[in-house]
Amino acid sequence: MITSVRGMNDLFGEEMARWGFVEAKIRSVFRAFGYTEFRVPALEKVEVFSQTVGEDSDIVEKQMYTFTDASGEKLALRPEGTASFMRAAIEHQLHKQGVGQRYFYYLPMFRGERPQKGRLRQFHQFGAECLNDSSPESDAELIALLDTIFRALGIEEFTIRLNNIGDEPTRIKYREVLQSYFKPSLAQLCPQCQGRFERAPMRILDCKNESCRVIARKAPILLDHLDPKSRAHHQLVKAHLTALGVPYVEDPYIVRGLDYYSQSAFEFDCQLLGAQSALGAGGRYDGLAERFGEAPIPAVGWALGMERVMLVLEAKQLLGTQTLVPHYFFAPLGEKAFGTLFSLQLSLKKEGVSVEMSYEKGRSLKSLLKQANRSQAKQTLILGDQEYDRGIAVLRDMETSQQLEIPLKDLKVELMRRVGHAT
Length: 423
Ligand code: HAM
Known about the structure:
Elements: H1 13-33, E1 36-37, E2 43-45, H2 47-50, H3 58-63, E3 66-68, E4 74-77, H4 82-91, E5 101-110, E6 122-131, H5 136-153, E7 158-164, H6 168-182, H7 191-199, H8 210-216, H9 228-244, E8 249-250, E9 264-270, E10 278-284, H10 288-291, E11 299-305, H11 306-315, E12 328-333, H12 335-350, E13 355-356, H13 365-375, E14 379-384, H14 385-390, E15 392-397, E16 403-407, H15 411-418
Parallel strand pairs: 1-5, 7-8, 12-13, 12-14
Antiparallel strand pairs: 2-4, 3-4, 5-6, 6-11, 7-9, 9-10, 10-11, 14-15, 15-16
């Protein structure tokens, strides 16, 4: 049997219906906040990510799906949305269209990670990006937006962890401070962090390895070394969140694994998830445009992981059943009845009345009623050749088993009227 790629799932049936229900709720929050949808292609030139996300990031170092196409161009399947979004924003000069442009996307992302609960190789992100806005208000709005989405879905068991990682010169100085702190304990760090020591010492701070964590917890923190502008920005973001009633904790160890961040960095950690506890994360990326060779364009955003959201909603049993229940089930018995009901169900569907009918011929009433029960339709229309000759059909209430006869000539009008559709 040829199966799907490990960590890449098929979605269908009841599960797909639940996803659709959640997606619609999230889209309605975006609408209220004035974010319009953005779509970028699944494939990008590899530099879109290698130049921006960071050569030392896990994504670029080992997780990107890349290949060379027939023309010799090196391409990558999109591992995240922000670099693609900025590539498109610059290509279409969107930043010139005004301050504070708000976009959202809902797209599959691809990362060659080791699959586990809440971690897939193809996963889906809803993302929000506010372009050409350097105000602390936009950071606060973005965080409040993600908070609103989770609460609208019924998720409250999360902690917002907020940090400010300063501007580029501050981080260069801080890296040196960190290197002198970690140097004496280099041998106790995990092999990966030993590799990070020279190129990306800040990444040691969010390593999940226990021995690294013990050492990292005593490291000097960037908040104590912040430049005055970043410090003022951070104070304002915090003050806005407090005024908005959005609870957060300050966490100096949130440094994010992607290189393009500056200033605000945040994660929404969910207590109901296991090791992969981040429901969503993001931050400010004022320097990203420069990595494309452009003048700086201030921007802030986040992305949430749909698979993780669905895990939480299922654990909380908040989704119920989302199956589409048809208005009617049609049970034809005999050839003449079959032809009549086949045409009638199609003409009802055109009017917006939903009907389920199997095209398998010669079935018994018992087997048709079994399928009718499974469909959850409240009413089943039964038509045998005998009824056909008498010019009537039988409508059965599936709950009470009561049956009533309807003249064939009135059938369409009557079936529409019964579900509130005028003719
Ligand atoms: P990220 O932290 O890499 O950020 O991913 C954001 C969210 O996507 C995570 O918090 C998690 O919920 C979900 N996620 C990430 N990897 C996986 C995976 N392998 N399987 C399932 N879910 C996953 C970004 O991608 C940034 N582009 C966010 C951003 C937007 N920053 C600014 N704007």
